[in-house]
Amino acid sequence: MTAKILLVEDEIEIARTLEMPLAEAGFTLLHCLNLDSARKTLAVESLAAILLDLNLPDGNGIELCREIRRESTIPLLIITARRDEIDRIVGLEMGADDYIVKPFSPREVVARVTAVLRRQGWGSGDGSNPDDGENVITYGGIEVDEDRHQVMVDGRSISLTKTEYRLLLTLLRRPGQVYTREQIIEMVWDGAYIVDRVVDSVVSRLRRKLGTLPDGRARIRTVHSVGYSLTEPESP
Ligand code: CA
Predict the structure, then answer these.
(1) Which strand (E) or helix (H) includes residue 218?
(2) 64 to each of 94, 154, 175, 232, how far by Cα in Å?
(3) Among residues 100, 108, 4, which one has the least CA distance to residue 53?
(4) Rounded to whole angstroms, how far apart are CA atoms 165 and 10?
(5) Cα 54 to ligand 1 centre (Å)
(6) Is it true that the peptide bond before 103 is cis, omega within 30 degrees of 0?
(7) What angle do CA 87, 192, 226 make, to 5 degrees?
């Protein structure tokens, strides 16, 4: 079974140039020309990833990005024109995993899609996992099951975007360490060009979702003019 990638893009030429390279990389390309048909496709298809153009005939792709992120952590890459930097930032704030700037080479798109899927653990198994339950990180009431990509806080399941999830894993790797924004960009976005504002925004979303420790402190603390770290729970 090949993985299906949905491309939402009104320029037919772009779909044409992507079809073959994606097929060679093992993906089937589904193509929608507008938001309306993308919504219909999303309702019925099981997809591996979404490539979403922002400037579409029936609206801005950001709307669809927001809708998708309300219920899904599916890898989502936005496609923007070079001049639309604001859209790109908003897209990442809305939970897009990466962005591709037009004009791009098909090879670049395949590489980006593959990288995002790899980050998510795609292709590392067939879905049935023999190590179920063994890859669990816990810290201060936070429990991350890496095999299932599940996050629980105080026994309650929370849903994170891919970016938030990567940020949480980064912070959990060394709970006491204060990470600078540069380090976070390196670990969460693989060093891509990301403005500080996006980092701050993802941190504050994750902080909100993680809630507070029993003593009322937020689970992520800001270390003034340095960066962020997990808050140490009080020793029992
Ligand atoms: Ca367009």
Answers:
(1) none
(2) 10, 31, 35, 37
(3) 100
(4) 31
(5) 6
(6) yes
(7) 100
Q: What separation in Å is there between the alpha carbon of 150 and the centre of ligand 1?
A: 35
Q: Is the pTM of this model over 0.85?
A: no
11 Cα to the center of ligand 1, angstroms: 6
Q: Which residues pair with 220 in a beta bridge?
A: 230
Could you tell me the pLDDT band of residue 122, with boundaries at 50, 70 and 90?
A: low
Options 3.40.50.2300, 3.30.420.40, 3.40.50.10800, 1.20.1250.20; CATH of 3-119: 3.40.50.2300
pLDDT tens-digit map of 165-201:
999 999 998 888 899 999 999 888 887 888 888 899 9
Residues 64/38, Cβ–Cβ less than 8 Å: yes
CA 230, CA 236: separation in Å to the nearest integer? Answer: 17
